Amino acid sequence: MAIYLQYLEIPPFSTKKERTFKRLVKKAFQILGRFPKDLTILFTNNKLITLYNTQFLKRPYPTNVIAFPSSDSKYLGDIIISIEKAKEEAEYYQIPYEKYLIMLIFHGFLHLYGYDHEKGVYSPYLMLKNEIKLAKALGYGEKEIINFLQRREYMPAKLAVNVDHVATLREARKTYYPDPVHAAILAELGGADGIVVHLRLDRRHIKERDVRIIKEIIKTKLILEMALDEELIKFAKEIRPYQVTLVPERVEEVTTEGGMELEGRVEEVKMVVKELNKAGIKVSLFVNPEEKTLQLAKKTGAQIVELHTGLYAEAEDEEKRMAEFERLERAAHLAKELGFIVHAGHGLNYENIGPVAAIPEIEEFSIGHSIVSRAIMIGMKKAVKEMKELILRARS
Ligand code: PXP
Asked: Could you tell me the pLDDT band of residue 25, with boundaries at 50, 70 and 90?
């Protein structure tokens, strides 16, 4: 088996480094359980990769790596890497350049076997699974690399389902149904990646009992939304959800009205973040999509920010909606650059989710009211039919 390394200009790597690249690729065949084959890795620049990208993929811009599989049974194909782009991206993602380059080689290598993160819903997962497998087996399994692989922009965003309003319906009659615990399980069956509950200061919908049981039985992650309150912090530390999302709260409000005001509160929030992190809980801050707040959020040490999408969702006309959308786009970009995991939520529904779901930096959406509302409508016909049958059967 031969691995050909080619360069556009002067070889940018030492012979020792070239040997490392070849050794890693040879091992990659073994790890994936494939027969070794010849292949070429061409290291080039942005200009040439743009030509390839335009000519073969109709994308007129530079990219990091392109792979061309071969139909020859002994030749696997060609991996083309832009060194220029790789350097830029390594700096952006704060990954050592050489390690980043090796990740790109693995990425191209998997493409040569037909793995494709741009096809369908599950292909990205399969591609990622193998990238992680290679990284770990070849000694690149550090947390920073695995986190980077898992958080690639092309991965579909996750959906965390908020079941508060199932409890709202229960509390409308102060009875025991519908139970948000059941809703949480059904949401998971529908594909939810996480369950969100907001334990409000007045306990108007979700109660401690709901949080406890949901934490026990769900298979995904529990996200506890709460105000910055001593008693709630104590409860969170006892329950230990995957994540706490800190939100501002006013007892008179119908729903959360805006993001957290961090001006003059950084030290207070920082202490709470530290306390929750110490208990093994990740912390997210619900914030308005604005630069000043994001810069302050960074100082608190929180790992996640949830961008408030309320103004986008409630915009009265298209012009205002577009302005709010662009604010979200800019904020998502900045938040990611500041090193946050970026989430978004509030007011998102079946009509307005599309554009925000395409913002690549947003990794997760927190959606409640629209899903619970839709569930009632989708289930209404069946629910009426069941009751009607009971009535008819009673005298037949
Ligand atoms: N994110 C946060 C921080 C919230 O407070 C809420 C409402 O509880 C949501 C997301 C979900 O909003 P909606 O119910 O409008 O989908």
From this structure: very high
The closest of 32, 48, 41 to 110, measured between CA atoms, is: 32
Confidence band for 154, pLDDT divided at 50, 70 and 90? confident
Concatenate the DSSP letters of all residues of 4-34 into one string: EEEESSS--S-HHHHHHHHHHHHHHHHHTT-
From the candidates 89, 131, 225, 306, which is the catalytic residue?
Answer: 225
- What is the average per-residue pLDDT within 38-56? 95
Pick the atom of ligand 1 nearest to 371's CA.
16
Domain end, chosen from 123, 152, 181, is at 152
* 225 is annotated as an active-site residue: yes
Whether 310 lines ligand 1, by a CB cut-off of 6 Å, is no
Active site residue 216: no
For ligand 1, atom 3, the nearest C-alpha belongs to: 286
> 232 and 371 share a domain?
yes
The structural domain count of the chain equals 2
Do 207 and 349 lie in one domain? The reply is yes
How many beta carbons lie within 10 A of that of residue 49, not counting itself?
24
Which one-letter amino acid corresponds to residue 344? A
Ligand 1 in reach of 256 Cβ (< 6 A): yes
Select from 108, 130, 152 the last residue of a domain. 152
The residue assigned the tokens 């292909």 is 123
**Does the annotation list 333 as a binding residue?**
no
Query: What does pTM read for this prediction?
Result: 0.80
Same domain, 244 and 301: yes
Instruction: Tell me, yes or no, whether 250 and 103 share the same domain.
Output: no
Q: Residue 170 belongs to what domain range?
A: 158-395
Same domain membership, residue 184 and residue 108: no
**Contact criterion met (CB below 8 Å) for 178 and 186:** no
Give the domain CATH number at 67.
3.40.390.30
* Strands 304-308 vs 282-287: parallel, antiparallel or unpaired: parallel
Encode pLDDT of 333-342 as tens digits: 999 889 899 9
Q: 346 CA distance to ligand 1 centroid (A)?
A: 4
Token pair 């959606």: residue: 367
